[in-house]
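TA notes. Do not distribute before section.
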Amino acid sequence: MFHLRVSEVQRRGIAGALVAAGESWLIAQGMATLATDTSDANAPLIGLFARRGCRITLRSPEARMVRLSRRIVPG
């Protein structure tokens, strides 16, 4: 995945809409979990996923990574 930061479009709900679309796709594929791995210093992404109900479910201090996840249900 590529890291893209464009200040002119930040805080407009684009990332949330992309996550929602991904979640819909996961549900359509029959998946039960939404998850992402990121740097433990990536506060914006951690906040985005936390607002969508995810919590940190795995920490890797040596790699400075966290996994955020939650169960997803159709509906």
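Switch to the second chain here.
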Amino acid sequence: MTWQQTHSRWQALKDIEAAVATDPLAPLPWTDAYADLFGDRAGLVAYLRYRWLLRLAEPAVDDVHREHRARTLARVGLAALDLQEARRAVA
């Protein structure tokens, strides 16, 4: 992966996490550019789930507020992914 691809992937994750934090009940955002970065929606979901599970498993840090925000986003994100999976199962 090139530096530009890495930068694009991190920016996409930042944008996606902001969207999830704003409205966790909305479908995950998806663009053609995300397909280049994650392959498909399942790849994005798998990456987000992995990222958020790692965040919850991280040891405590000195910045309690940053840690709380990161863990809250991870919990909300994981719940949003579970909700979307449940919606697909019912559809």
